[in-house]
Amino acid sequence: MVMEIVCPAGTPAALRAAVKAGAHTIYCGFNDETNARNFPGLNFNRVEMREAVQFAHQHGSSVLVAINTFPRAGDEAIWHRAVADAEACGVDAVILADLGLLDHTARTHPGLRRHLSVQAAAANADVINFYADTFGVKRVVLPRVLSVPEIAAINAETEVETEVFVFGGLCVMAEGRCSLSSYATGLSPNMNGVCSPASHVEYIEDRGALDARLGGYLIHRVDKGEPAPYPTLCKGCFTAGEKTGHLFEDPVSLNAERLIPQLQKAGVTALKIEGRQRSKSYVAQVVRNFRAAVDALEAGRPLPEGMLARLSEGQAMTTGAYKKTWR
Amino acid sequence: MPDPENPIPHCPAPLAAALRVLPLAPLSLSLTLFARRIAKTHPGMVQRLGEHAQTDFILDPVDLPVVLCLNPNGGLPRVRLTRQQVAGAARISGPLSALLGLVHGAFDGDALFFSRDLVIEGDTGAALALRNAIDDAELDLAHEAAALSGPLARPVQRLIALTERRTGPCLTRPEDAVIW
User: Fold this and answer.
1) Residue-wise over A227-251: b if at least 16 C-beta within 10 A, else e?
2) Where is A146: in which H helix or E strand?
3) Using CA atoms, how far apart are residues A255 and A320, in angstroms rounded to an integer?
4) Could you tell me the pLDDT band of residue A93, with boundaries at 50, 70 and 90?
5) A284 lies within 8 A of chain B by CB
6) ipTM over 0.90
7) pTM
8) CATH number of A4-170+252-322
9) Do A203 and B120 touch (CB under 8 A)?
10) Which residue on chain B is closest to A208 by alpha carbon?
11) Which one, of A101, A105, A37, lies nearest residue A71 by Cα?
């Protein structure tokens, strides 16, 4: 069976671009703090979501809605309403992370398919099977900390479908457990849906050098001719003692397109592309590339050469934890 | 570091030369009317701007001797061209072709930003909201200009197509970006 391409869409136009480019499935979110890409000008209101689902279904694609932040005490109704509205819009599944919200959805929307978000950081078969047995989760998005053999080991011990990231931004920590952003801005992806919120990011160019500031703190400075610095603390460049460097991780992004055959052998069902904050041009190019790759794999042809380097954040790429060469 | 496979076209020198001497007031008025038509035909764009719908944006085509001051003004945009140094809440600078390519969905904004073909200064949130609102609007400036030209629509479209072929900047939505 052809591996499923799961593609991001931050706007209705990006969703249509993804469908046209051949995405089997598109994931998106409502325009509020219920999803982990709560950026200015991004996401879908309820009317747009309903129309987007209709459009995708007319063209044979599915739509998943990420409701994957963690509800604030006293404000759970915002998240409950998002789940109910997603079901009313006719979405194919919701992507959830919070235990309470999973429980609420399983009890009050039993017919709505449930996927486990990467934000839940479920990284072994025992916990995945717990989510399946307790809340009826059908698919898990695996955190970007696992090697291919580890993914194969998980698939050998669970009936739950697995979805893995193959392209886009990379987090240094297990998703759902990173609060770095909140130290500089007071806001985090887990609670507010924003890592390094744009309102707290500032770029200042001075005689060719470019500074990136987050919450007023200088986190990286590059010289003329170097790629623009990434605005998150995890990819910042810091000086400690006499050494200057990327303390947490290099500013590279994930590209696992050459690992697709191994991921298929490891039992992976779906390949996920990161980037709901990116443009429809990015979406179309990346989806087209990965769709060609999975179609070639299915037909027994060699994988086409990748052409995605320029689209990667930081303009440098890695296969991340899938190939843990440092071990 | 521009992409050697897909270079950003240079702005035609005669356009830059003309903008050094042309009176800017009538051009500003025309652009304001043009922007108001676009805001009317794409109301979702202003909605997407949200809290930034009253923000002063400076759009700076670095290969032209003018900058464009844009205030969406809640759906009744004001546009002003100036040769002076001006300040705004958010400034987006880059070659004219890059800015037009973004409008038409031919380029990815993040890729242009990381390659430093595009520079964002000031309120990054406002700049991001504008980028996302325009990306979702699926604009075609040639189509909008033709629609404003009444009986001259066809000649205007032909003229724009010819200008695009001869000069390089993306003045229409590329075939590839047209989505059903």
Assistant:
1) bbbbbbbbbbbeeeeeeeebeebeb
2) none
3) 8
4) very high
5) yes
6) no
7) 0.90
8) 3.20.20.70
9) yes
10) B116
11) A101
